[in-house]
Specification:
Order of helices and strands: EHEHHEHHEHEHHH
Number of strands: 5
Largest sheet: 5 strands, parallel
Structural class: alpha/beta
Distance between the termini: 37 Å
Number of helices: 9
Strand content: 5-15%
């Protein structure tokens, strides 16, 4: 099975045009990367034309918070735990659930064992990570059920800051998993 995915899609028209061209070339499964806030906010409409999406969390954080990845003084802003980024991920996850289509995450967020249950609770269905992170992320997910993931996601979404999100999620998950 061949799947293709277009990066840096910002509009419904871009997603639809890419999907049409890919399908015209004989590709059955077509997806896009959601790396811009506009694509995240339009996820419901984008899912009408594609089969899956993958969230590029590094770029999504950069563009959401206007924080250049190369500027060290803005490094704290480039964090997938930032509430604005989590809310965008949640919007994409909800759109994916409603459409019955997969939502992946790639980038540093996919390799964070503390964040993995939150992402699952937000509707993410797959995580991409370096092999060295697989054991820690797998153990974190094995220690919780879907209800705990949803409670962790709710706690993160309610937090006003990245550090408060980490703390709130830690409290929720400590009760069920010992994380």
């Amino acid at each position: 099975l061949v799947e293709v995915m277009a990066p840096m899609v910002a509009t419904v028209e871009e997603a639809a045009e890419f999907a049409e061209r890919a399908r015209g070339a004989g590709i059955d499964r077509v997806g896009i990367m959601i790396e811009t806030p506009s694509a995240a906010l339009l996820a419901t409409e984008i899912f009408e034309g594609v089969d899956f999406v993958s969230l590029g969390t590094n770029d999504l954080a950069q563009y959401t918070l206007a924080a250049d990845l190369l500027l060290s003084e803005l490094g704290d802003l480039n964090d997938p735990w930032q509430p604005a980024v989590l809310r965008l991920i949640g919007a994409v996850g909800a759109a994916g659930r409603a459409a019955g289509k997969p939502v992946g995450v790639c980038g540093e967020a996919g390799a964070d064992p503390a964040l993995a249950p939150v992402l699952a609770g937000l509707g993410v269905t797959s995580l991409s990570m370096a092999p060295r992170a697989l054991g820690r992320v797998g153990a974190a997910l094995a220690a919780v059920d879907q209800d705990a993931c949803r409670r962790a996601a709710d706690a993160a979404l309610a937090a006003p800051t990245a550090s408060a999100a980490r703390e709130a999620v830690g409290a929720v998950l400590a009760d069920v998993s010992g994380l």
